[in-house]
Queue: 4 jobs
Job 1
Amino acid sequence: MSLLLTVYESPDWNRLIDVYDLPVAEHTELSSVGGKTKALKPAQKLSSIAKILSTNSAENHLWLGVVQAEYFLSKAVEDGSSIAEASEQWQKITQDLLALKRENRQRINLFNLNQALAHPYEFNSTLGLKKTVTHRTIASKKIEFSLLAACQYVSQKEEIKELNSVLHAYTISFNSDEAPILDIEKAIQQNNKITKKLSETENERNAILLQLQHAQEEIEDNYKSLAVAQETIDQLITQNEIDTERLKAETQAVHTREVKKLEAKFLEQTYDLEKKLSELHVSLEKAEHSMLAHEKQYNKELSKQENFLRKMKAQAAYAEYNCNLLQQEITDLRNSTAWKSTAPVRALGRLVKNPKTSNIKLLQDAALLLTSEYFDVEWYLKNYADVSESKINPAEHYLLFGASEGRLPGPLFDGNWYLQQYPDVADTKTNPLLHFIMFGQAEGRRSSPVLLTNDIQNNVEQ
């Protein structure tokens, strides 16, 4: 395999590949090129070339296109770059390339890139290419004047001339002449063209300067006119500002007068509204006081009626309860034959028999409870179903069992709280409701925490 590449940045390298229609290889293909001749198009670094040598077979040869100092420096002249910097760059590349060549004499061939373009037949024959090209096809596009300048520069630098000669010695030459191909007559023609173009450019420059002078004069005239116009505008702006300030002052004065009128009217309306509002507040307070008085009177009357109703209900319940007991007793007696036959004797015995004192006391206390608003028979029987089922008098049950069991006689009296609130009553072992009816109410004691709270609220309101 033959692989063509270069380490010099030169447009002639791309021209060489295009003119000879060389197939371009990628780095990934280098190990499988076979016997074909290919080229790497971008200029390579020496480190890349060393890597290619280490990864490819010894049978593969590298053809490195080299650029003489004159052609390399002429490119710098064309680009307007520093010829001194370009000279240092060429020397560094060339010295490193020659060192690599010495290490790999059998695998690296150096050829003159510019001679390959100038002598296509010799280049074709050396590399075994079959591309037909002519001198016309690859005619150099080099500017002879820049090449002439580069040749003059090289002739003055002994180190460059010496390195150029060493490079030529290691390079396969397609022409025995080492010096670059230079057409002096063409260079003179190019110089004449450049001189003529410079003259034409100078004439154009003078014409442009004349036009610029006329334009400058017009600008100055326009500037003067602009200054006059600006002065007029400034005067108009000043007058406009004066008129605006005067209009603002007049508007502000009118606005102030209108605001004062509206404020006076608003204050008058506000005073009337506040007066009416005050009168309404007084009327509302009177109405509220009257309503509260009526409400208190109504509540008092309602409380009296409720107390009276509870007393009547208690008495009715007591009477109904006794009536039911007597009715049941009568029914049982009447249905009993033995009772019927001995009825006169038992009736006589009941008349002459002295009842027990304890029973009389119990009946008296029960009667006292039943006539009190604080003992609610219906409530007691409803809340304590076992009492209702036992058929016992609810008042007697409360006296005998209910109070000691912590039961309440009704919603208006809390016996448990009463005994806790008044320990002196608890010490007497007296039934709490019986004590309240007989003594506590007259002493100003309270029947329950709920009623105590209500009394406190009523006192606060009064």
Job 2
Amino acid sequence: MAIRVRITLHFFIFQSIQFTVMWVLFVAIVVLNASVIAALLCTNARKSRMNFFIMQLAIADLFVGLIYVFPDIIQKITIAWLAGEFMCKTVKFLQAVVMYASTYVLVALSIDRCDAITNPMNFSGSWNRARALIVSAWLISIVFSIPLLILYEVKEVQGQMQCWIDLGTPRRWQIWMSLISIMIFVLPALTIAACYAVIVLTIWTKSKAVVMSPPINSRRTKTMRNVFVLCWSPYIVFDLLQVYDHIPPTQNNLAIATLIQSLAPLNSAANPLICCMFSPHIYTSLRRVAPYKWILNRGRSSSMTRAPVDTRRTQLLVLVSSRD
């Protein structure tokens, strides 16, 4: 009896932590990406290629919060699936589409930065190529998500109706998870890494007169690659170890797996932070947007009111020290 109570308590703790993490992720993804979109809409340089890709990435990541994270939060509240077979397939399909889109728009951005450095003379007139990269990213996401329309169904699981996927044998789960890992992690990570390698090689080999600003692009691509790997690795590695039976299916491990799976959208919260880090004009543009204008200006005014006090205090200390 004591063991059963302890297991139930541990599971409740993990569920509470997961629920909190999902809400924090949802708020962070929506607020950060909405802020980036608002800033880009207000900036005078929003028609630049870099801003175009940042905008597309922020839109994809915003959809991750609204379409992927929020329905999962609702599912945690209701526990049972109440929306029927059609919505089951539709929601799971759209969730997969936005997750893939967030990843492959990031890949498109990396390819574009690589193109900007390797072909600087032809870069300015390649807007059609930029749009083609974004369209391709969404088309790839849709194609990769189509199997979910077939595999997901509403069925009874432990006495409650759930939107469920059942592949049957462990071997099928191993193949499925391996394919998912390749499509959403391995292939994008290798592409981004290849773009970074080409950028670095080009910077080293071309003259300084041709590449004055690309080091910023290099650092941005490197940071995005590293953050992408850090955000996705726990989810991919744990799930692969689980389906290949390297992690025993204990109650605690199942709870940990559920918690780690809730971290899958973490990269969508990190992307806007990286974009702001390497694009200071986004922060500057936020000062024109309410309520950021009020918050930032209030912080600035409070610091300015403290400045005269600090100045008088410094002058007094100098006067005292001179008398000594």
Job 3
Amino acid sequence: AFCEEGNITENGILSFAKFVIFPILELQGGKDFVIHRREENGGNITFKTYQDVEDTFAKKELHPQDLKNGVTTALNKLLDPIRKKFESPELQKLKQQAYPVEKVKKAKGGGSSASDRAVDPSRLDIRVGKIVFAEKHPEADTLYLEKVDVGEPAPRTVVSGLSGLYPLEKLQDRQVVVLCNLKPVNMRGIKSEAMLLCASVTGSDDKREIVPLDPPADSKPGDRVTVEGYEHDKLGEPDAQLNPKRKIFESLQPELLTSEDGIAEYKGSSMSTKLVIFIYFLINNSNTTVKNADFINSRNAKKTYPKKSQVDLVVVEEHHEVLEYWFDAANKGKIPKSGNVLLHIDAHSDMAPPEMVDDYPVFRWPKNNREVKAMMQSNDVFIQAAVMSGLFKKVIWVWPSWDEDTHEGDDISVKYGGGVTTFDIPDNEQHFCECQYSKDGKTRQECQFVNRTMFSEDEDYDGSDIEPKDCDIKGNMVYQQIVDYNALNKLKLGQLVGEGESLLLDIDEDFFGCVLRGHRLVDAGIPWDEVEEIDDLMNEVFCPELTAHEGIANRFMQVILALITKHCKSSEEASVSCVTPRNPKSKALSIDITRVVKSYLEKGIFCAMSRSIRQQRLEKLIEYFIDLTVPQIRACADLGFCMQTSPRSYQANGFQLCHGANEPNTTIVTQHSPGENELLLRLKRVRRMLRTQSYPTPGMVTLCRSVRDGYTSVKYFEDIEESVIESVLDSRKDVNFNVIYDINLLGGEKGWPSRRMRKTTKNVKQ
């Protein structure tokens, strides 16, 4: 069920708790609703009423997974009497009569029915167990001896090779996952009656780490573990005992893996207990190797195929950052330096002309990094910059059908010429210009250039028209705009990109929906002029130069806002401003903030200034937040704080509230918030585009997040990125795609949502 952090309006788990769990608890005499959590996650939490749950969840003080676990535990308790009733011999017999297991006839020659059964996970008897006793094997230093309760009258004896790999003291009373139908074997004089299932991870230092699989907290010994799609009621009960000569488990073991989320799987299908509670393991897996059949190995995070050709798949934050990778690949001979076709899948054309600045390589190949940086001006001029260098002869923009109202046609192709002009410009200063050709591609017709001064003064300014003779053409390109469903059809027919053409594939995650984050602040009731004042002050206080410093500066501000909120809690109404200079609590707040500032002084986040000026600016900044209400402060904290542009951009624009580049009510960018069903359909459409085999293998793939500049939905970006990468990896079985995450990604490889502080309360108390 859908359960997004902090979302209380569209939440199936909360609805189930409200209309099922709590009414039943009320009928049971008003029992408490208890959510069990590990101590490192805050320990158990008890709720008297549903409203308490909703309020806590809305404040993001209750994690969605903890809520799911709590509801699942409560539901299990409700169903336990029914399960116990069905354990009676009469009802078990009735079950067997109602759902008989189809018997397979013996093959000629006396072969057993088990030999004719498919080799799949339904053959395995996997159960939740609890280790009730553990010690070192008396005859072997590398073995442990355990007694494991698997729901039978007596514990089973299990001998495992964990000595030296996993601490003995951590096994005592630990819940584990056990394979129970292997043939018992003698291991140094003691018969082992089951196998402990563990995850095996080999890190970059070649050191092997082992950890037992971790069943759900509400599991009990004997609970059956199955694989989705291979349930026993569909395919039959497990073998009473696996025939060791047929190597059943050994055949299945290579596909017993763990996902990147730590879920144990078989060929991508999750292992679970009843009610589909996933089986997890607790190691951050990296490169993985399997050392023996006693262990389930983790899946490598980067999916690869047999090497025939190598293609880089680069993930960047802002779109102009692809220029460094394109030019580097061309300089190394991975892609041609000219004549390429760009397949650009994006909600925006990104075809604005660049500005002629110092060090700009005018219609030639850049000679050094300084010239490349001069081309990296913003997220909407990088394509024209690449075209001017000669890298592309044709650009195909595939735009999303949700933006049809802003387009004149579903498939339009135009030839353009680019050049320079000095027409009507003081001191013969050069500017870039472009001309559109007639349909026959021979006659220049409409020509214009962008006067940057007029552009900044007039929001409706869309370029200055000039005569064709006044634009000195230096190069040409073909520009095609095509809606996504037409692009899919043409790709299938091999009509979009010609056979033998050199192709670069470029995808922006905002293709799937464009959400302007600044509305979050406006909806909270913060006037935009006040947002701009806060931004200006923050630019005067913070000067992070690296994304690492950016993350530290964001954490600093999160701690400050948490302190302010902490001192607001004495207010009776959330809408009341926090504290005032006359409030006694303001002194305590000042002491707390001073302590935090001192702890961050040497972390490279503050601008160079004297101590007194820094204190004055910080005090003024904090006064702005103190004047906000609690919900408004939380809106700022939820949005976070970041650099406006990537630190590798030609001109960095400082540190501010992370609302993106498009201000509410001043941008012409179309906003489109997709629902889950639409998002799924659009992801499938892109997958179908990429899986068609009627276009050349791209020499490079670039994927842009567009979270920093405020386009891509933070809510969905992880799902979008994972799906797009998987679609690219699956698009060519004869290609090994090397996934590269750029160093300047906002929030790092895991993204902006990962920056949220999980221990804010602890930081406040220090």
Job 4
Amino acid sequence: MKNVFRNLVNTFEDLPLKIANSRSYSRKLVDKIGFIDESQLPPFIKPVKNLVDKVENTLNKINSDIIGFYNQLFQTITITIPDSGRRIFESIKEVITGFGNIGKDPKTALAEVGKGTVQIYKSVKSLVEAKEAIQAACDFVKGNPLEWFDLRNEFEEVKSMQDSLQAILQKDATEWVQETLIESEDSVFQLTKGKFSTKSMRKGVVSQITSTVEDVMEPFDMLNDIAQPFITAYESVFGIVKAVKNAYNALKNSYQFALSAVNKIFGAKAHHQFPRKIRSSGNGCSGEGAYPSKLRAWGQQYWALGIDLEIQNEEVVCITNNY
């Protein structure tokens, strides 16, 4: 049970880390084409920048949504739920121990069971409130989960842009690289004194652009099913909570039945001021405490069996509040 609750916390804390890694990768894509001056290049460079901007903007929105979700539920998931789970675990052990001792000391054992039962009730109530907070944050109640729970639409949109752009690059970029320039008109060749040419420069630019387009889906691969581990952990935790809640109702009925039976057998609890000290011999008393008393040599002093208790003169305390 502890591991199930811990797993919910771990998957929740992983969410901002995953989006941070994805955004870091997308920034590398931006940097890869940031040096390119599109005014100096053919029209096919514009769709490349549009694609990278699309990825960057989409990830920024996802990041904003996830961080908002994380901040909203941080205390509920990292503090309230684990603490309530721990209390339930400890209370269950207390209840089991109490039932194990019921044959030795029924009243004390039932007191332990009662204490554990009350704590289970309080903890389950706290977890139900936590569940309602999570459902509200996820829009589960309205049946309209958060967008980042399912990124297939964003994935397909970017993938479609990537496929179209790769087809364009296959044709237009190849033609641009293969454009023939004589050495005397090749400014790059002239400036570098033959070390580089316009063709080699263009090949380098196209290679950089092509690799950027090929890598553009990588951030989305990092976010593939980003919410699923959290949803699975959430369902596991509250599956346990539901089972504990049902068990609590049965436990409550069993506890009340056992308490009623013990009270019928042993009677009500004595008033806290009722004397508990058995009278011993000495100070003018020669009795032994247990009935029948032997204070009188010729017979019993009292008419009933019982225990002789020590009390101040003229002080009378009823054994219960009912008399």
